[in-house]
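Annex B. Sample input.
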Amino acid sequence: MQTLLLDPDAVEEAAEMSAVVSAVEDAFVADARGDTQMPAKSYVDLPQYNGDFRSMPAYLDAGEWDAAAVKWVNVHPDNPEDHDLPTVMGTVVYSDPETAFPLALLDGTTITRKRTGAAAAVATNHLAVENARTMGIVGAGVQSYTQLEAIATVRPIEAVVVADRDQERVDEFVEAFGDRFEVRGGTIEEAAQCDVLSTVTPVEEPIVDSVGDHTHVNAVGADAAGKHEIDDKILLDSLLVIDDYEQCTHSGEINVPWSEGVLSDEDIHGELGEVIVGEKPGRTPETGVSVFDSTGLAIQDVAASHVVYEYAADRDVGERVSLVDTDVL
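Annex B, continued. Sample output.
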């Protein structure tokens, strides 16, 4: 047996977005039913290099398929200036649960982008108004592209408003999607009035102060303690859905108001998996604003990697290598 090596181009080709969205939804369902194993994310802190490593292992049984993987990812803020390398890089080891054979080594950075967009799409599908046609995006970095690509698979998005302090980023985003959507740059306030809003910034002070009466918000940017994009009043007045209680209260959008006692467990409607399987209601005609706090889960990496591996194996994408010795003595 051989292991597939899948670089960013191969992962991009194999990660067909609608399939990733479907697999990520399967992962949330499996988690809600207790058919996953997802140990807490572990950290290797490296203050001497102003960085850290993070290990994210998981297994899930989706019924028709099961899969296991671990993502090894770093955060080194000095990399771009000091080493001409990205701040964040990731590698996924995707393994056969039955034999433990490493089926694939994948570019984890692309996997992360794809599964994060897919998670927002799953939440949007259950929490946004059915006829959502406008989308706002705050932050025009790499993740903004995947947010639009994914959410457009579950709602008939026609018009997009993107807000970013960097006009060059806005121009690049408009150019990338101008042939598919009516897309323009705008203010945060304009973006926040859309039917769906995704926020993908690293800020520590809220920058979204108001939203439309029925806007669904995907709060994606907060991934560490202290980060906070959405005004507390919006969170308190919304139908608030999270991806995972432990991660969100520690490092998600709700971490600051929750730690300060502004927001309590009673203000959290439930986890997304509970909504998908019907344990908690999603959007109803009476729902106003909804918010999804997305921190990113290892089961999402497993789900996206499953899609990529199956596509690549079927279509001979990537390079096959003899990574481990399979001789039985």
